[in-house]
Specification:
TBP-like, eight-stranded antiparallel β-sheet, single chain, about 45% helix, flat
Length: about 350
């Protein structure tokens, strides 16, 4: 009978069923692969690293412009210059930054820095900083240990504007009625002469004005809802006729003549005009911007024409789509609106008089 246990002494581990130890010197013909050779084989099989593509100059410009714009807005906020945040210059600067960022994103070499610039623009812009000013007190308005600062931060008027000057101005309600009448007259005239149809676009808003001493005044700023044509306006001669007609209505209502920011006659540098409007030549511009007011009255009027037939790289289309998102306003055509600055609500007049007595 054959034993199944076997002789334990013939195994190296002394365990039943373990494999026998190799003979002295190893098995015949066995070879080890040198470590350096194996490493070389592995490295040769790996794909070579892709060369790094340096960011484009345009993307650096877009990032620098976005950073500069953010610093300027934050500086305005800290100084309490809320009116400057919503000024035409600030809006024009923001539009230029947006155009540069969109152009950088369209370039494969600029997408990395362009994405950073886009995030910065989305975080710090006229809307967010203006809203922050309207919702709460900014750093410059934080209460200090100096009673004099607190006293002037509560000033109900606006620095360098007298009480008589403010009270002689239209009330908010009166100015809204006057502004709505002007917009209605312009729409009716353009519809009658050119057959335009209209739609209400981006909504309006009201917020308190800063008083120039680090606090909020009792006066408010009102932005009306946009009115926009339902069809594009692309013919150059038609654009001129439309603007001339608007100018005539403005004159009938006691406003100054239209100032076209996109025209070389505006005094802006041609390079600046090209950057903001797509071309220095109004015939090939993607955007026209015009302004008027009834100074010394509080009503400002804006008329813009978006024409994307000259938008070869899609920059202005992207900007307009973002601008009208969530509204019924089309991305092309004429849009008109009004802005009221530093007006009092009728219900606040008596309280304003009483509070001004302390100053």
């Amino acid at each position: 009978m054959v034993s199944t246990r076997g002789d334990r002494s013939q195994y190296s581990g002394g365990s039943e069923g373990a494999p026998p130890s190799p003979p002295p010197g190893g098995y015949r013909g066995a070879r080890r692969v040198p470590a350096d050779l194996a490493s070389s084989a592995r490295s040769s099989s790996a794909s070579p690293p892709e060369p790094k593509i340096p960011p484009s100059v345009l993307s650096w410009i877009a990032l620098g412009a976005a950073a500069l714009f953010a610093l300027v807005l934050l500086g305005m906020w800290a100084a309490g210059a809320t009116q400057a945040i919503y000024s035409v210059a600030a809006l024009a600067f923001q539009l230029g930054v947006v155009i540069a960022v969109v152009a950088a994103l369209a370039d494969r070499r600029g997408r990395a820095l362009g994405s950073i610039a886009l995030a910065l623009v989305l975080l710090v812009n006229v809307g967010t900083i203006g809203a922050a000013s309207a919702v709460g007190r900014h750093p410059g308005a934080v209460a200090t240990a100096d009673p004099e600062d607190d006293y002037w931060a509560a000033y109900p008027g606006i620095r360098d504007q007298s009480e008589d000057e403010i009270l002689a101005r239209m009330s908010l309600e009166q100015a809204v009625v006057a502004g709505d009448e002007l917009l209605a007259a312009i729409r009716a005239r353009l519809s009658r002469e050119f057959g335009f149809e209209w739609v209400q676009g981006v909504g309006g808003a009201t917020r308190n004005e800063r008083n120039g001493y680090g606090g909020e005044s009792m006066l408010v700023q009102y932005t009306s809802q946009n009115w926009a044509t339902t069809e594009p306006i692309t013919d150059y001669e038609l654009k001129l006729e439309v603007m001339d007609t608007i100018d005539e209505v403005l004159e009938d209502y006691g406003f100054w003549g239209l100032v076209a920011f996109n025209e070389p006659s505006s005094g802006f540098d041609p390079a600046y005009i090209e950057r903001l409007y797509g071309s220095a030549n109004p015939r090939t511009q993607s955007l026209w911007e015009s302004y008027s007011d009834n100074e010394p009255g509080p009503i400002s009027f804006y008329a813009d024409i978006s024409d994307l037939t000259h938008d070869d790289d899609g920059t202005f289309r992207a900007a307009r789509e973002a601008q009208v998102a969530g509204s019924a306003e089309p991305i092309e055509g004429l849009r008109i609106s009004i802005l009221l600055r530093a007006v009092l609500r009728e219900a606040d007049v008596e309280e304003f008089r009483e509070r001004m007595e302390d100053y």
